[in-house]
Amino acid sequence: MAIRNSAKALIVQENKLLAIKKQDKEGYYFILPGGGQEHGENLHETLKRECIEEINADVEIGDLLFIREYIGKNHEHFAFDSAIHQTEYMFLCKVIEGSKEIGNGTVPDDGQIGVEWLPLSELLNFRVYPQSMREYLLDYIAGKQTPVYLGDVN
Length: 154
What we know:
The protein is an alpha/beta fold.
């Protein structure tokens, strides 16, 4: 099976992170807006399209903050993710002023319940995937040096 590239948006405004809300048997969890790169798209085009589809927002794309791999067979969800190998590129983004109301977009993610702003002061209390990214994001915002490549993490 092929390795999939994915572009993700780290949208931080007013000390909150914008995330997509989902639910499973363990309760609510959150993922970053964004998704799979289509043939012929560059990562910025992918991210702009995905943000409109999932969160109904035009975004301005900034720096690439983190890259993570997700090799499903190596993580807790291996029972249904074992065939997945994905490389995610996480970009710092801003919602462009004048965007429509943020919420579910035209093509929400599978299982998407809604969109929420998560307070950074409570970020470690939320099940946000990738979970290891939460601490790196908080370190980045605090002005600390962070790695770009996070490895095969969840």
